């Protein structure tokens, strides 16, 4: 057996120290919103990486940066190890032929005045040339069959409003597949769908991953679906990655205090008392984010070190990292424990006496 068989496969798409700052509008304002800061990310063929975190943590911004729908403030995007920055229309078209995005709202991402046939035909002609006649019909049939819209003749001439939410999302996925991409950037692809059909879309994406060996970035605030669908999970807080690792380990044994709270925030019908626990305070302003660890104002273990310096991603297990000084050997590091025990129960508000 050759040595190449033992070498890990190089990433298809890679972000290196990716940052995005948005200027704050206003007269002579020099403030910026630190939406994303120094994020490293790798996507491999046939693998799914989940990016999880609360609203405003920077997840969708990363997807748009990787899709090159906006330029980064700093950092590099690599495609097969080479700088993939698209300079000009032709370069951008070549790039989107390999990296496609699936948006959150399938009704908003499909033009309501055009049929499924028009939507898919336009995508096929952009990425595969001017198909006509039998070749075009065969390609349309193949795309709809690939996303399990069968029989295909039932859907090809429908308008978006004639389809269910799940069917519309399947059409949006088919449109992305028309390019024969190597990477799919799925920005909360099931959050706008009924609970009853979410699993079907995830199973479809899993099938595409396995059959076509597509690399997938799955963005979600639902960490339970990340455990089901993704091979690896990255947790974001206030524009920074705070924990990474295989999905099973991150969800079952979270190491960063924020990840612990994120996991415990999922409703548990067997532990109704858990509602009495939770982080105090609010997410920080990204215009003037806290110095040091951005979670320090809400963390019960924070020390002066946490408030002074940004923690690097420390190794906390095989293939796992967490950005917390508690895992370092620095003087003044915090002593970590159970976040839920540290917060304790929320104080109850006494009823006014009549």
Automatic annotation (TrEMBL):
Q: Which UniProt keywords apply?
A: ATP-binding, Nucleotide-binding, Transport
> A GO BP term, please?
peptide transport
Which GO terms label this protein's molecular function in UniProt? ATP binding; ATP hydrolysis activity
Against InterPro entries, the record matches this protein to: AAA+_ATPase, ABC_transp_ATP-bind, ABC_transporter-like_ATP-bd, ABC_transporter-like_CS, Oligopep_ABC_C, P-loop_NTPase
Would the keyword Signal be found if you checked this record's keyword annotation? no
Q: Where is the ABC transporter domain?
A: 13-263
- Which PROSITE patterns does the record match to this protein? ABC_TRANSPORTER_1, ABC_TRANSPORTER_2
Bilayer-spanning residue ranges = none
Q: Which Pfam families did the record assign?
A: ABC_tran, oligo_HPY
What family is it from? Belongs to the ABC transporter superfamily.
This protein's name: ABC transporter ATP-binding protein
* Gene source species: Agromyces mariniharenae
């Amino acid at each position: 057996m050759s040595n190449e068989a033992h070498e890990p496969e190089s990433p298809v798409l890679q972000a290196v120290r990716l940052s995005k700052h948005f200027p704050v509008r206003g007269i002579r304002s020099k403030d910026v919103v630190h939406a994303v800061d120094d994020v490293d990310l790798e996507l491999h063929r046939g693998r799914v990486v989940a990016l999880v975190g609360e609203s405003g943590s920077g997840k969708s911004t990363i997807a748009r940066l990787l899709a090159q729908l906006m330029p980064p403030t700093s950092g590099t995007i690599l495609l097969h190890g080479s700088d993939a920055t698209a300079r000009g229309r032709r370069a951008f078209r070549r790039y989107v032929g390999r990296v496609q995005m699936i948006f959150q709202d399938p009704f908003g991402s499909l033009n309501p005045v055009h049929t499924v046939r028009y939507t898919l035909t336009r995508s096929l002609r952009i990425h595969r040339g001017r198909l006509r006649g039998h070749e075009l019909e065969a390609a349309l049939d193949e795309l709809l069959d690939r996303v399990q819209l069968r029989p295909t003749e039932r859907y090809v001439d429908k308008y978006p409003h004639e389809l269910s939410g799940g069917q519309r999302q399947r059409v949006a996925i088919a449109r992305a597949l028309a390019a024969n991409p190597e990477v799919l950037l799925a920005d909360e692809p099931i959050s706008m769908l009924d609970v009853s059909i979410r699993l079907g879309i995830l199973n479809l994406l899993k099938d595409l991953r396995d059959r076509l060996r597509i690399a997938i970035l799955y963005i979600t605030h639902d960490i339970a679906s990340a455990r089901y669908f993704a091979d690896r999970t990255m947790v974001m807080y206030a524009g920074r990655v705070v924990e990474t690792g295989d999905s099973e380990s991150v969800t079952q044994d979270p190491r960063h205090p924020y990840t612990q709270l994120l996991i415990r925030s999922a409703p548990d019908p067997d532990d109704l008392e858990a509602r009495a626990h939770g982080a105090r305070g609010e997410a920080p302003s990204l215009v003037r984010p806290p110095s040091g660890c951005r979670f320090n104002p809400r963390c019960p273990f924070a020390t002066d070190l946490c408030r002074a310096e940004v923690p690097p991603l420390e190794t906390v297990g095989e293939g796992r990292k967490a950005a917390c000084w508690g895992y370092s050997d620095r003087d003044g590091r915090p002593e970590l424990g159970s976040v839920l025990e540290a917060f304790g129960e929320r104080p109850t508000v006494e009823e006014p006496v009549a």
